[in-house]
Design goal:
- With 289 residues, this protein is of the alpha/beta class.
- It has 2 domains: 87 residues, 3-Layer(aba) Sandwich (Rossmann fold), CATH 3.40.50.10860; 123 residues, NAD(P)-binding Rossmann-like Domain (Rossmann fold), CATH 3.40.50.720.
- It has 10 helices and 12 strands.
- The strands form 3 sheets. Strands 1-2-12-9-8-6-7 form a 7-stranded mixed beta sheet. Strands 4-3-5 form a 3-stranded parallel beta sheet, sandwiched between helices. A two-stranded antiparallel ribbon has the order 10-11.
- Helix 2 links the parallel strand 3 and strand 4.
- Helix 6 packs across helix 7 and helix 6 crosses helix 10.
- The longest helix has 20 residues.
Length: 289
């Protein structure tokens, strides 16, 4: 972690991610004696540039962990039923221990029919109805990577979550919704905000911890946070080819006690958790002790 004169800690996500990858690699190496290799498959529809960047990071992380990796790419005009059929075929591979659909999908394909085609036993993004339901009931074996990365980060900086006022900005299926469930399970007092929320600034000023998950540059500004707030940024938006988060980083970092940067914050931890999930599913599905 880097210490600045105004006592803000910038959280090093890469450092946390390295620890998680080492744990995943250690578990994966134990399977090798049993001739089992964790295997992650990624489905990409179209050629969305940022998606290709993220997939390459997942491929590199898979190599570091010792997992196999395959990419299945389809044209962006693929019919929904054809995509569903392709997913069904891909997951017939008995060696597969993790399968994700790289989001965003083209608008007309983005619905639960496509995501729910994934077998929950290898749904390492935890986007199927089955796995979200297990998360609510606390019967889950794995957790959604980005929400888990947020909670892992808060625990790494030794912050107790029970009783904390936490404001989540963004209520999407990938981060905001599952994160709210997981924080409620941690006994935090959670406020979720969406595009219809009135007086977002007030809700942020009342928070001990703000987590932003929208994908809008400079959405969270310094006047929205009180001194000493912890700010976790999971948003990603590209402006002129440069990756940004939701947080107006430099002014906010002068008031926050801890803050995650973008890039180099939650992103690497998310990728590491995706691989850890792939290893956990390999263990569970092959009944490895």
């Amino acid at each position: 972690m880097v210490l600045f004169w105004h006592m803000t800690y910038i959280i090093d996500g890469k450092k946390i991610a390295t620890k998680i990858e080492k744990e995943a690699a250690k578990q994966a190496s134990l399977f090798n004696a049993k001739k089992i290799t964790p295997k992650l498959a990624v489905i990409l529809v179209g050629d969305h540039k940022p998606s290709i960047t993220y997939i390459n990071r997942k491929r590199q992380a898979a190599e570091r962990v010792g997992a196999d990796f395959t990419l299945h790419q389809f044209p962006k005009n693929i019919a929904k039923q054809d995509l569903i059929n392709a997913i069904t075929d891909i997951q017939k591979d008995p060696a597969l221990t993790g399968l994700i659909i790289q989001l965003p999908l083209p608008e007309r394909l983005y619905n639960s029919d496509v995501l729910n085609t994934i077998n929950p036993a290898i749904d390492v993004d935890c986007l199927t109805d089955t796995n979200i339901g297990k998360l609510v009931m606390k019967t889950n074996v794995i957790e959604p990577p980005t929400p888990w990365a947020v909670i892992k980060t808060l625990k790494e900086i030794k912050r107790k979550l029970a009783g904390k006022n936490i404001t989540i900005v963004g209520a999407g299926a990938l981060v905001g919704k599952p994160l709210a469930i997981m924080l409620v399970n941690e006994l935090a007092s959670v406020t979720t905000c969406n595009s219809y929320t009135k007086n977002l600034k007030k809700k942020c000023l009342e928070a001990d911890i703000i987590i932003s998950a929208v994908g809008k540059k400079n959405l969270i500004t310094a006047d929205m946070i009180k001194k000493g707030t912890i700010v976790i940024d999971t948003g990603i938006v590209y402006v002129d080819g440069k990756m940004n988060g939701d947080v107006d980083f430099i002014p906010v970092s002068k008031k926050a006690s801890f803050i995650t940067p973008t890039p180099g914050g939650i992103g690497p931890i998310t990728v590491a958790k995706l691989l850890l999930n792939t290893v956990i599913c390999a263990k569970k599905n092959n009944k490895v002790v």
